[in-house]
Amino acid sequence: MTVRPDIEDLLGRMIRIPSVNPRERAEPAETPLAEFVAAWAEEHGMRARLGEVADGRANVLVTLDGDSAETVLLETHLDTVETAGMTVDPYEPTIKDGLLYGRGACDAKGPLAVFLGAMAALAAGGPRPRTVVLAGVVDEEHVYRGVQAMRREFAEQGIAPAGAVVGEPTSLRMVTAHKGCMRCRITARGPGGHSSEPWGKTNPITTAARIAAYLADEYAPALDALARPLVGPPSLAVTMIDGGSGPNVLPESATLTLDRRTVAGEDPHEVWRELRGLLLARFPDGVEVAEPHVVDYALETDPESAFVRGFADVLGASGHDPAPKGVGHGTDASKIALDGVPAVVFGPGAIAQAHTPAEFVPLDELHAARDVIEALLRRTGGDR
Ligand SMILES: [Zn+2]
Fold first, then answer.
1. Distance from the alpha carbon of residue 293 to the mean position of ligand 1, in angstroms
2. With 90 as the cut, is the pLDDT of residue 5 above it?
3. Residue 382: pLDDT over 60
């Protein structure tokens, strides 16, 4: 008989601790939550410590030793998105019709409560075949500094997890694939001048329009050949256009912003270099392709790896859909997978509720997710 901490109460307490990602501001935004997690974990028989990432912002690492040094990593993020425009109180959790509302309810304090609750059950007794490390990291909603710091620390300390579960809302599905992205700006330039005398002058808006048409009509359709089973083909969309200074002035520049979604096997930096080469060969005059301002990696975990098959077995035995799933949005899992760790994404609540004015997590999914993670951590015998 093991003790089950009340994870609804735990989630409520964590929602009451604001941890909004400060983006570029230097503020220790997630640290009060990291300190709370460490204290809660120690109260429940685990070891915990904080590690500063930047600006006083700290990841929290919680360890529960098992019978073997083989390690399962549970990773999720401490930060949330902003609360402006929320129609529920972001920091006062409320329960209505079986749904718990508040900022972070599903993204990702719900998954964090699931992980802590499952680990506390193991700490209280029963089989503990493997060592479990929980990483609560900062900055997932911005530029992933938390997971990158965690990877560096694992490399320094020789921690090589046998598998990882990344906590995000997946409606209890096992996500093994998602896309990455590369975003950059393209600027066309011209001499400018009076618009009544445009002859012989390069108009950057015309160049930008030609570039946009080339990208939509020739470049993007060719990406279909790179489709992957769970996520489909890569994509490219021009998402912003900016140029011109007055209705009777020839523009001196026009800038396009593009969003190129990548699939497994594509390095976003290499995608940028190739795209830049194509554009400069085709539009040689006055065109600049700036370094990417956002890159992220795609995830494609082998569904046949022992860890993933084990997780699928646990899902199936618990009455949940064990089939691997692909999603469009990014997660920390793709960074963890860069180190060769089989990583899946799993958690209660739906991505459709994340970042919304009335974010919630269904309580039945919260408890079901906790049961799945406990069963995974108690699982003995690796390959089936
Ligand atoms: Zn998230």
1. 21
2. no
3. no
